[in-house]
Structure formats: structure tokens, C-alpha cells
Amino acid sequence: MRLYLVHARMWLLVLLTVIGLASVHLAAAPAMQPKRASFEISNAFAIKVPEGAKRVRVWFAVPQGDTESEIRALQVETAYPVRYGTDSYGNRVGYLEVNAPQEKQINFRETFTLTRTEIRKTTDPATTRMLTAQERADLSKYLQPSTYVVVNDDIKALANQIVGGEQNPVLAARKIYDWTLQNIDYWVKDPERLKASPVGSAEYCLRTKTGNCTDFHSLFSSLTLAVGIPTRIVYGSLLKPTLNGLDVDASYHCWIQFYAPNLDWVTLDVSVADIYMGDFPLTEKNQKLVELTTAVGYRGADQAMVDYYFGNLDERRVVWSIGRDLQLDPPQEDGPVNALHKMYVEVDGKQYTDWTRQFTYREITASN
User: Where are the domains of the chain?
Assistant: First the structure.
């Protein structure tokens, strides 16, 4: 019996050693390398000049460089002087103005090369904590509502119901993320019945239980702000493989960053995640819209993609600006700008909307 116990102990030690070595091996295994891709990008702008206009002022989005985005060879082809300023959120913004315009249309084109890196971030709730009073003061800009990101009694009550007293910002944000996925449907799933708002509105999204990316993320922002999580909306565009090299406007897209101590800004995209949430029928009405709403295409419900978009972000994106209710440089005259993902125009001191922007691109490299 004693010999049996000795042998058992020996085998136990061997087993623990093997497990320990395996653990060391797993811990030492390299993390998956973020993907990278490069693109040549063009923005073609056209403004129809109204009869009798005395001054046309134009602020246009330019690509924002950051740790994931390398911008090269930015040029603007135009007959008018261009200068660059910084708006109230720190975004770089292009500006031109035309006094006593003689042309019936003002045209200009922006081109640049982008190399974008995938965002991969471990969102372990054990690594973060509640914000300190000093952190709240430092991040106060990102704790404020805006015109369409409202924080009222109804939003506060709903947010507290969803979060249930959770104080950890990652766990609280994930609860809001999951609630949004379970209760809101992206409008492209059923375009004949579901519609987006024209401005990106939390109230609209909550009332109708649908919307586009800005509606989704306005509601998400309202709910996170209501429980004290600093949040900001990032405006950009998806560089979809299906539109690569085509002379078709690729529009815009937006996503979210929330702040968690020790993790810094955590990125998510609850609107694209919603496309992969549960099965829904593909029809002639929605199939193309669904495909174009994603960065990499749609092949049915995929929980792994739902989880991926909480903390991670694919490399097929360009950033135009961050924030809502922007004050531009030089200052605009007709109130705050809801968001700047294309351009903002004023004619004789009033906002003007008879213009177009055509965003196109060509992929030049792709690598892991």
C-alpha cells in the first residue's frame, strides 16, 4: 500500500509538471498578429452654388492619423486655397471658401494613401476598475450628452436596469452591448419595414428599435453615459472588398470607443455585430445592403463575430473624425455640426446641403 502511494505521488508530480510546462508554453505563445491593409483613397466633392450666393464656406473631413492609421501623400486638387484647422474634438479639418462665386459648381478632390492596422484588444474586466474623481474630471468632455445623444430620466432608468449596479466599466459596457444586440435591429435586415433616422438619434433608435450605425451608437452612448462611462463616437468609412476599385460611393460608417482605466479606450461596433446576431432571411431587398454593411461580407449568424466586435476592429476602415456637436476652425456661423464624416457647407452664414461626396478606393496590399 505504501509503495502504491509513493508511485501515485510520483505520477501526480509528473502530471503537475507536464501541466505546468503546458501552461508556460501557452502563456509564452505569441498573440495573433493584427492584420494590415493599404489603400489608395479618393474623395470627390461637388457643391452646387445657389443663385446670388455671396460667400461659400466649406469644411471637409480629412483622414485622421493614429496608432492604427498611417496617412501618406495627402493632396487636395482644387482651384481654391485650402488651409487646415482643428475642431473642438481635436480633429484635423480641411477648409476653403469662395467669395462672390462665379461658378455654378465648386469641385475639388482629396486623395491619400492609408495603411490601416486591425485593432486587437484584450478586454479582461479583471484588469480595469472604477474611474477616480480625477479621471472623471479629466474625461469630462466624454461624459457629456449632445443634441442627439440624450441622457434623460428614461435613458437613466433603462441603463440602470440593464447594468444592474455593475461598476466595472467593461462588464457594464458588455451588458449594454448585449442588450442592444437583443433589442435593436439594423434597418438593412428588413429595409421595407425598418428605417434609419436622418441624424443619428438615441431617442429614435430606442423608440423604433431600429436604425443605422449612428442610431445604434447614439443609443449605446446614451446608455453608457447614463451610468458614468466616458464614451465617444468615431466616424469613418468601411473599405469593403465588394466596392474595391469601383466608381461607387462607399458612404460612411461609425463605431464606439469607451474608456476603461488601465485599458485606455476600448473600441466596439455594435451595429456591425448586429448583422451577425441571429439568423434572418436574405432576400432580393436586403441581400446587397447586408453585404455592404459589413467589412468582410456576410455568411450567416456568427457568435464569434459578435464577440470580436467588442474590443476589436477590422483593418478595413478609415477614420474621418471623432465626436458630435462640433465647433469648427474657423468657426461656423449656423450652430454646432452634428458630425463631420463628409463635409459641412455654409452659404452666406446658413447651413447648405445641396452637395455630394464620392468616396472611392483601391486596395494595394493586404497582409497578416
Answer: 36-117+324-367, 125-314
Task: Please state, in angstroms and rounded to a whole number, the distance separating the CA atoms of residues 76 and 311.
Answer: 34
Q: 36-117+324-367 and 125-314 share one CATH topology?
A: no
Listed residue (266, 265, 184, 260) closest to 218, CA to CA: 184
Nearest to 249 by CA among 31, 29, 55, 46: 46
Domain 36-117+324-367 has CATH 3.40.1570.10: no
C-alpha atoms less than 13 angstroms from C-alpha of 246 in its C-beta half-sphere: 10
Helix 153-163 and helix 213-226, axial crossing angle in degrees, nearest 10? 80
| Total-model pTM | 0.90
273: phi then psi, degrees, rounded to nearest 5: -55, -35
> Residue 5 above 50 pLDDT?
no
Q: What CA–CA distance (Å, rounded) separates 183 from 54?
A: 49
Spatial CB neighbours of 132, under 8 Å, sequence gap ≥ 6: 261
